[in-house]
């Protein structure tokens, strides 16, 4: 390979050293924890998309960041 390239043999040696240092049980636990964290992140990001958008009636008089916000009806009744 050229300069800066990592061959498959170098990757295998690095993997062997990591397994010898940490052990397979510890690496398995680390992988499980990382997988659970990713699942929790995806669930929390997806939870925001499931909320319905509030109607105009629900938004009237709503306070956002300490400021009162008035929402006008799209169809005015005179």
TrEMBL record:
Residues 43-78 are annotated as: Disordered. It comes from Serpens gallinarum. It is found in: Cell membrane. Pfam families: TatA_B_E. Keywords: Cell membrane, Membrane, Protein transport, Translocation, Transmembrane, Transmembrane helix, Transport. The Tat system comprises two distinct complexes: a TatABC complex, containing multiple copies of TatA, TatB and TatC subunits, and a separate TatA complex, containing only TatA subunits. Substrates initially bind to the TatABC complex, which probably triggers association of the separate TatA complex to form the active translocon. The chain crosses the membrane at residues 6-24. Belongs to the TatA/E family. Part of the twin-arginine translocation (Tat) system that transports large folded proteins containing a characteristic twin-arginine motif in their signal peptide across membranes. TatA could form the protein-conducting channel of the Tat system. This is Sec-independent protein translocase protein TatA. The keyword Cytoplasm does not apply. Coiled coil: none annotated. Residues 45-60, 67-78 have a biased composition (Basic and acidic residues). The keyword Transferase does not apply. It comes from the Bacteria. It is a single-pass membrane protein.
């Amino acid at each position: 390979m050229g300069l800066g390239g990592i061959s498959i043999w170098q990757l295998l040696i690095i993997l062997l050293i990591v397994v010898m240092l940490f052990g397979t049980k510890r690496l398995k636990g680390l992988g499980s924890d990382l997988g659970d964290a990713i699942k929790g992140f995806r669930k929390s990001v997806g939870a925001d998309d499931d909320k319905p958008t509030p109607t105009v009636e629900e938004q009237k008089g709503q306070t956002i960041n300490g400021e009162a916000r008035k929402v006008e009806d799209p169809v005015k009744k005179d």
